[in-house]
Write a structure and sequence with these properties.
Length: about 200
């Protein structure tokens, strides 16, 4: 069993000058430059294989170039949230896609949205019954329509994203609401891209 622990050159019965040649052929046992090049090539190949199918480009179909986003409907008693959500969605569209925001008359497509619910749930209270940590959650539905054909491109009935806030860190319902709305806006753009 100890014979297996010998170097490759001795197991093959090679000695002297043949030993160095054999080591260089094995890579990883040759000189440092060869080892580095071999390692770099292997890392590059692994990264190329692992990244197949991924793209930093927008995944939205190329025949839709512009979008109109009217103010979302709001079925909750919390007024004004529809304006904040619409702004957050528009910002995410501009940041993450190649779509142009345009007026209704110029648009290839229209994104309709509706806030279905906005909930606040208490997670932790202290010994004096003061809220320490709470969670807000926004639930919406969207419908993206190709204005030229009238065909529905994407329709989702239940997109929900939560956000937590901790009062001891001076976080407020307002900051949590804003975070939840941005999370939902990101979710909307994800939905527009993944349905292609």
């Amino acid at each position: 069993m100890n014979n297996l622990a010998l170097t490759p050159s001795l197991r093959c019965g090679k000695t002297g000058g043949e030993k160095n040649t054999f080591r260089k052929k094995l890579f990883l046992q040759g000189d440092t430059i060869t080892d580095f090049v071999y390692f770099a090539v292997m890392v590059f190949l692994v990264m190329m294989v692992a990244s197949c199918g991924y793209s930093s480009k927008s995944l939205i179909r190329s025949n839709v170039r512009s979008i109109y986003i009217p103010i979302f409907d709001n079925n909750t008693f919390r007024r004004g949230y529809e304006f904040d959500l619409t702004k957050a969605v528009r910002d995410q569209i501009l940041m993450r896609t190649r779509l142009h925001l345009v007026d209704k008359d110029e648009a290839d497509s229209i994104l309709f949205g509706k806030i279905i619910s906005f909930d606040e749930n208490v997670l932790i209270v202290n010994s004096h019954d003061n809220i320490v940590e709470s969670r807000t959650s926004v639930r919406i539905e969207i419908r993206w329509v190709d204005k030229r054909t009238g065909r529905v491109i994407v329709e989702r009935k239940n997109i929900a994203k939560p956000a937590e806030f901790i009062t001891q860190r001076n976080e407020t319902l307002t900051s949590s609401k804003n975070e939840a709305l941005v999370n939902v806006a990101r979710g909307i753009v994800d939905t527009l891209e993944e349905d292609w």
